Amino acid sequence: MLPDEKDAVERVTVSAGVTAVSQYISRGVSFSDRPSLQPFISVRVALPELTGGTVTKASVLAGTWNSIQGSKPGLGQPNDGAIPGWYETDLYAGASIELDKRWTVSGTYYRYVSPSASFPGYNDFELIVRFDDRSLWEGIVPLRSFRLSPSLRMTQEAGQPNRADALYVQPSLTVRFDLGDPQAPVGIAIPLVMGFSDSFYRDARGGNPTFGYVRTGLTVSGKPFARTANAVTVNGGFDLWQLNGRVSSGLKETEIVGRIGASWAW
Predict the structure, then answer these.
(1) Could you tell me if 12 and 43 are in contact, meaning their C-beta atoms sit under 8 angstroms apart?
(2) Helix, strand, coil % (nearest 5) of the chain?
(3) Radius of gyration of the chain (CA)
């Protein structure tokens, strides 16, 4: 391989995986009350020529995420499109920069379509700001790689055919730390996520509540095949949703969603 070809290959990271969930909830609203498989694949290309000074990393990315059921999605939604059971396909592309090795800012465009014709297509424009706080806790918290991972996600809808485009805001903290063998650690993640919107949430009595939900839970992840397949990560856990009872979400005020999945990166 020529040097330029090797450099081009080393810039590219491909990630793929699949997660099985007991039901599909997003932003505090039920999208399908049936068990779902959610495969994805993404490609990220590093752009080291854009780094320097405050900018310590830069990249572009593109990919797809999907949600598939073995039957109708439920909730009275149609399932008579070209591929029945294939509830959702998200196509996305975006860019990300890291600032001072701590802050990450990313912007992504999403196109949502339903091969099963369960919903009409629309778009999202997403901005996420993350802060890597792990260095703040070194020598204070006796847990390896402990951090709170503060994040703010803002998403603006565009082209919603059935209602006004909504702005969705999601602040979060996720307590993360590692256990076990440092060469093959088990990762623990405990999120605290809240959802707010100007018009995404609907009150059955009229109006648009601003607050949608609080979500927490537990995710355990690791590389059980580290010696033979180090690129494979397995994860499992649950999400605990506490929902605003005024919102027409198709859910009870408390919901638990189980998850198990695997991913590959190379």
Answers:
(1) yes
(2) 5, 60, 35
(3) 20
Q: Does domain 3-265 have CATH number 1.20.1050.10?
A: no
What would the two tokens of residue 32 be? 């399908």
- Decide: 264 and 17 in contact? Cβ < 8 Å: yes
Model pTM score: 0.93
Per-residue pLDDT of the chain (266 residues; tens, 9 = 90+): 544 555 666 899 999 999 999 999 999 999 999 999 999 999 999 999 999 999 999 999 999 999 999 888 888 899 999 999 999 999 999 999 999 999 999 999 999 999 999 999 999 999 999 999 999 999 999 999 999 999 999 999 999 998 899 999 999 999 999 999 998 899 999 999 999 999 999 998 899 999 999 999 999 999 999 888 999 999 999 999 999 999 999 999 999 999 999 999 99
Where in the chain are the domains? 3-265
CA dihedral 219, 238, 92, 149 (to 10 degrees): -40
DSSP type of residue 185: P
Residue 94: CA count within 13 A, CB half-sphere = 19
